[in-house]
């Protein structure tokens, strides 16, 4: 009998955030168990609601968004995105340089497919948001991971980045603010990355989907704003800042100097037209969403949900013997360190699975973010403080006598 196997293109492609541990959690849920989920950055199930004005705008547009749009997206949406880019000093972005997508996810895959030939290398952070590594691998490229340094606020280790550039390197991916660490990079670090790209003739891919989720009075600096003489492809969207991940609403902008990228842009245009266009009702709410940035800010201020949940979980985790964590400055993730000697941990996925089975709480193991040692895991702190406190208490109790052997 003829068997159908998955394509060999997928051999080394993995996306563990929705991998085997989540499958086990889904089995437990199907069997009637209640699981506290701290594993996915999806705000809506935790009671976060998209701003009313945004929902209203989409519902008002439903009857005139029944058809396909231009492959790059509605002009009204792209004009609003251009304005947003201007407000962040991102250079040389016109409506022609903006592409809407079914989430940033679709555009990340598209950009890698359009750029990479077999064996081409792209520098990607470790830990990373794993879609980057998966998309590079699927496109036939090689993701070369540069270290982000936990001892230095999880900022990229510039020396490590430099040491990993080869003749095959085509681009650098910068995820700022970062998932999974919650780090926000300062100008000095960004300038050094730009200089490296300049010296080696590299494209910059700036994943800035969390740029509006910054706390403690800090400001996000768009990478493109520091690199007018380079090509920066900047990614953003409304899944997180406007709490509507299910609408699949993202975009990317080609910023700065495009003169050396005519061929690549042709490739992007071709791939963009092959998927016809992104969800048009979701595109139609972009102008309203980008005029309503204040709503999102409240949850990041003292007294706001995300801020208070961060304060709670940061203190609770820092209090557990054998764990430590860098306080996140942005987004809604943290990436705690665990003392693997103390707990005899050799397999972080097993740790997360053991914890899930015993305490019915779901984290993601550090390996899922291409972190090499089994000594980290990611917490999504979107659940309310009551659920976070159940998670923290359970973790403390679980680790009290946990040993892997
Ligand atoms: N980039 C980062 C860093 C993310 O964390 C995510 C989602 O978690 C995405 C991109 C994809 O977002 P979306 O496809 O919903 O726009």
UniProtKB/TrEMBL annotation:
Cofactors that this protein relies on: pyridoxal 5'-phosphate
Leader sequence segment: none
Domain (Aminotransferase class I/classII large) ranges: 34-387
Enzyme category, top tier: transferase
Domain of life, source organism: Bacteria
Alphabetically ordered keywords of this record: Aminotransferase, Pyridoxal phosphate, Transferase
EC number(s) from the headed UniProt entry: 2.6.1.2
GO molecular-function term, one example from the UniProt record: transaminase activity
InterPro entries listed in its UniProt record: Ala_Aminotransferase (IPR051926), Aminotransferase_I/II_large (IPR004839), PyrdxlP-dep_Trfase (IPR015424), PyrdxlP-dep_Trfase_major (IPR015421), PyrdxlP-dep_Trfase_small (IPR015422)
CDD domains reported for this sequence: AAT_like
Family membership: Belongs to the class-I pyridoxal-phosphate-dependent aminotransferase family.
Record protein name field: alanine transaminase
Organism expressing this protein natively: Kineothrix sedimenti
């Amino acid at each position: 009998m003829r068997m159908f196997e998955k394509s060999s293109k997928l051999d080394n492609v993995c996306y563990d955030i929705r991998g085997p541990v989540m499958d086990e959690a889904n089995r437990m849920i199907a069997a009637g168990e209640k699981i506290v989920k701290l594993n996915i950055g999806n705000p809506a199930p935790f009671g976060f609601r998209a701003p009313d004005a945004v929902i209203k705008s989409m519902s008002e547009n439903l009857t005139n968004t029944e058809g396909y749009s231009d492959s790059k997206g509605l002009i009204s949406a792209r004009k609003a995105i251009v304005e947003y880019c201007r407000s962040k000093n991102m250079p040389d972005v016109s409506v022609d340089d903006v592409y809407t997508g079914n989430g940033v996810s679709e555009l990340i895959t598209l950009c890698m497919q359009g750029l990479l030939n077999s064996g081409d290398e792209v520098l990607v952070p470790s830990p990373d948001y794993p879609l980057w590594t998966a998309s590079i691998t699927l496109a036939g490229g090689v993701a070369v991971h540069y270290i982000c340094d936990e001892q230095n606020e999880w900022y990229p280790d510039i020396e490590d980045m430099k040491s990993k550039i080869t003749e095959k390197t085509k681009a650098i991916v910068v995820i700022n603010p970062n998932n999974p660490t919650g780090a926000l990079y300062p100008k000095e670090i960004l300038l050094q990355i730009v200089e490296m790209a300049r010296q080696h003739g590299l494209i910059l891919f700036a994943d800035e989907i969390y740029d509006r989720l910054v706390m403690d009075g800090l400001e996000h600096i768009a990478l493109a704003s520091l690199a007018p003489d380079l090509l920066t492809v900047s990614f953003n969207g409304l899944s997180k800042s406007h709490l509507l991940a299910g609408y699949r609403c993202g975009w990317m902008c080609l910023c700065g100097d495009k003169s050396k990228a005519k061929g690549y842009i042709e490739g992007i245009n071709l791939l963009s037209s092959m998927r016809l266009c992104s969800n048009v009702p979701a595109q139609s709410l972009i102008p309203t969403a980008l005029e309503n940035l204040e709503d999102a800010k409240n949850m990041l201020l003292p007294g706001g949900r995300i801020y208070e949940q961060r304060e709670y979980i940061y203190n609770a985790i820092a209090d557990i013997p054998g764990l430590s964590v860098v306080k996140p400055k942005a987004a809604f993730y943290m990436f705690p360190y665990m003392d693997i000697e103390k707990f005899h941990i050799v397999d972080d996925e097993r740790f997360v699975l053991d914890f899930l089975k015993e305490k019915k709480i779901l984290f993601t193991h550090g390996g899922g973010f291409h972190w090499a040692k089994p000594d980290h895991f990611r917490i999504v702190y979107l659940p309310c403080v009551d659920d976070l406190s159940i998670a923290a208490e359970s973790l403390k109790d679980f680790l009290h006598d946990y040993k892997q052997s």
